[in-house]
Amino acid sequence: MIKTSRLAAAVKLSLIATVSTSGVFVANNAVAAEESASFERIAVTGSRIQRQDMETASPVTVIDASAIRAEGYNSVDEILQAQPAMAGMAVGSTTNNGADGVAQVDLRGMGASRTLVLLNGRRMVNSGSGADSAVDLNTIPVAMIARVEILKDGASAVYGSDAIAGVVNIITKKDFEGFQLDINGGATDKGDGENVEISALYGFNTDGGNYTFGLAYSDRGGVMQKDRDWVEKGASSFIPTGSLGGKVQDEDGNWVDRTEGYDYTQDSWLQTPNERYSFFANATQEFANDIVFTGDLLYTKRQSEQMMAAQPASVMLDVCTPSSTGNCITLTDEMIAGGISPDDQGRVEYRRRTTDAGNRIYEQDTDTLRVSAGLAGEFDVHTGIAWDLSYTYGKNKAETWVHNSINAKNMEQSVYDNQDAWFSGDPLSQGIVDDISYLESTTGGNEQHIVSGVISGEAFDLEAGPVAYAIGAEYRHDSGYYNPDPVIVAGEGTAAQQDPTDGSYSVVSVYQEVSVPFTDKLTGEFALRFDDYSTFGNASTWKIGLTYEATDDLMLRAVAATGFRAPNVSELFGGNVGSYDYLDDPWGNEQDPQILVNYTSDPDLKAESSESYTAGLVYSPSYIDGMSLTLDYWRFKITDAISRLDVQAGLNACHAGDATACETFGITPDGNLENLTNPLTNVGYQDTSGVDFNLAYRFEGLGLDWSISNDLTYLLEFEQDGIDYTGTIGGMFGGYAKVKNNFSVKAGQGDWSLMYSNRYIGEMDDINYGDTVDSVLYHNISGMYHINDSITASLGVKNFTDEKPVMVASGNEAGTVPEVYDTIGRQIYGGVTVKF
Q1: How many angstroms separate the CA atoms of 238 and 67, rounded?
Q2: Are the C-beta atoms of 95 and 272 separated by less than 8 Å?
Q3: In this structure, which of 245, 435, 565, 760 has its CB flanked by the most CB atoms within 10 Å?
């Protein structure tokens, strides 16, 4: 039955007229403008049931292509992370250390691996540098996006694993006829951070079909920390002249305390360079027997770079004694007078910032291919029972390099062999540099196969309408590998030792959904899914949703669901990784505050479990035409979360006589820490809740067409593994502001439009130091003009008032957290679209 209430009409109208809020308009449910104009049965994100109405129980945010262009976004992660519903610290274009050029999304701050990313309703292969736990959003060019749909409740009962926090469904451009050329670019007002995107779209119709093809090229320039006056100088104890036992030589050759540190900010990016080449295609063809073929293809090559200061290298050197027979160093009278002395094991530490070798330059070359094809039809046109079969293949391959890495084993031997050269403080010879430095090379990848089938239709009619259903089955096989450089595998690098990763798993799933119109006003949605994994076993999940149209103006909605996240390849089969953690040895055997911990994976990990609840309303007041409001409470609880144990607590417990703690962490009762291990286990939990509010209002006034939108998220609680992160920020986990808000107002007439938007991030407390970190408000202005039927031009300014990032004492880069705040500054952008 087709709903024609004022509320339904308002929802459809608002979806057609998507508004931007620095990331755009939040709608009741997701549907394309061209789809909402008819009464064809359509698929809505969060359900596999084909339906005529768009009012489901789940809240969905919709971001369309025009809003993306108006805001000047250059990548999918920028689009998503600007949303108030995002939190935490998803890596992206401003992550210079440790991300390998990857860009991810972190819905509700629950972790990138707990947000499922779909492309045209089907899974996207995990991608990055190898054995990855989430999708690299760089693989999806902005030019191909028709809209982005964000489902903001748990959807494991519909889509399976990874949809604990929600789903991001990226819909690509299709059904296009003609040729379109887009040229977009911009830069900061300081003359750096240049970016350009050139894309071409071509499509044509056939009898019963359409074929759309696209090419896209994008080039993102870098921004250096040294080129921003707000960046405070660093002060590392690793200096280019070297230090021995914490002492350095002065001009007179005396060994004294170090007075100045090395400024590592001079050689680090704030925005990392990135170059991408993409090809994509969509095809739809209806055959004579009413069978419809659909297919899409995406290939992206990413070449990216990060840069950090020269390697800080440290080696422990044996001090010569009368009985020494092997390699050792002799402490001179000047060294001894300066206070240099060996530790209890007869060693002394030598540190050096290896600027003679050059900066650490990280490079990635990744290729990602995804192909999906399906056939759909009806068993009998009279019964309305439809079927859909599809196959999806994804493959990601990556090569990564680190230039000017240091071989710690060679460096140690070189110091023994060339003590005068190393201890003099003078630059090292090219021969020594060639001996200790090397090009670190790593390979990795991911692969995915999915075969699925769905039968859907209407089982029978009730007085209020038909009972609709979908029943399906799916087979999925995921694999991944990661091969570190042989020097790292051997434990001879200055970076910690790491073993290769290689593994795979498969899963067979069956699921069903039912939509029941109990009355004209009350509709129930029910989903049940069973997944059987080759690794941990099986998982069953369910979802119950209710919508109640209280009046023509007001709809109430609620969802309760269970979910799960299966352990990924790196968690199951990841190679052991060494990590130098700051720990206190209760036995007193280890004097160095950094103690080597062996991080291990576990092939016997179980799946994470979750519960999610949402309850809210959609209100479209009859006395104000064009206005709609949504208000939703949400809560997510995760148990058996895959996490690591507290090593310090384990050390203390073992020292106190807890034999189980000693065994768990690989510690001997007498405090031998050579095999200190921290395994992944199902011991963690998360509990987070909050409120989302959205206002959308379209009206005419002063001879102009107006659109106003406001999108607010208020975080009530975020607790993880016994720590309350609500309203806090830190460099290790990002920001969990209590209040995040996006607002926009757009006015236009005929061929032109102007838009002002702002983005607010509320104040937070530094989780390590307790200091209050001030709120920030970013302002953006943009305009668009249709020159004629073929040419459209746009121009805008992001961060119009050039707001500086808020300083965070426990930040992870440049004295702040770049994944939370804008570190680039004022940016001017523009573009031209030409259609033929």
Answers
A1: 47
A2: yes
A3: 565
